């Protein structure tokens, strides 16, 4: 009789534990412990320690899957104030530092390249600027001799 | 049927934690007592277990606290108590709730 009720409880808690596999480890453990505690106390309070009374306690607790589903909805708030992940980064810190350093180095190179490119384009733009200025006076100089033949042509005709 | 269940769940979602705080405002309770009073009061007698994740979150958020007490019979009990933060949250909710309920009642025509 005792072993049968113990078995019922063990099976129920194993089902909760299995369903809670998607929860963070600490919360999963806490949930199973809370339910075990509830069952033990409810059992100690029930007038007869029978299989039927254990079944009633477990039925009232409800389906393990819906209990874990309720735990899912209760993770919303704590996610905002998750302190445990703050403790986790120290382990990954060296890697993270290198990743950040690498990203910064790449960004630096890109920025330098952009600056260089912009500077080069500026000089390219400013170079043609004097170009037309040089050719502007040069063109009339070329036209002038060209005008000379035209002026000489009418004069010739 | 499942629509009705979803409605009930949605209605409970924002209010049930304040029912926890209000029960603990009267006196400290251990898990089994708290969960049974809550489920009896809200007609959730087949899902007592779903309240433990809620209690866990309230504890993490500092609205309730727990203390172990020896029991005259059986294993020691973990009593849930209201913290000052929890008390403040309950006071705030009571005001919000009266306003909210009044607005809904006026729109639904369910005022008395």
From TrEMBL, chain A:
Where is the chain membrane-spanning?
Answer: 97-121
So which domain of life are we looking at? Bacteria
Pfam entry (one): HAAS
Q: What is the lineage of its organism?
A: Bacteria, Bacillati, Actinomycetota, Actinomycetes, Micromonosporales
The protein's name: Transmembrane anti-sigma factor
Positions of the region Disordered? 130-157
Q: Which UniProt keywords apply?
A: Membrane, Transmembrane, Transmembrane helix
In this chain, composition skew of type Polar residues spans 148-157
Automatic annotation (TrEMBL), chain B:
Q: Which organism is it from?
A: Actinoplanes couchii
Tell me the Pfam families matching this sequence: PadR (PF03551)
InterPro entries annotated for this entry? Metal_resp_DNA-bind_regulator, Tscrpt_reg_PadR_N, WH-like_DNA-bd_sf, WH_DNA-bd_sf
Name of the molecule in the record = PadR family transcriptional regulator
* Segments forming domain Transcription regulator PadR N-terminal: 20-91
Gene3D superfamilies with a match to the protein in the record: Winged helix-like DNA-binding domain superfamily/Winged helix DNA-binding domain (1.10.10.10)
Against PANTHER family, the record matches this protein to:
PADR-FAMILY TRANSCRIPTIONAL REGULATOR, TRANSCRIPTIONAL REGULATOR RV3488
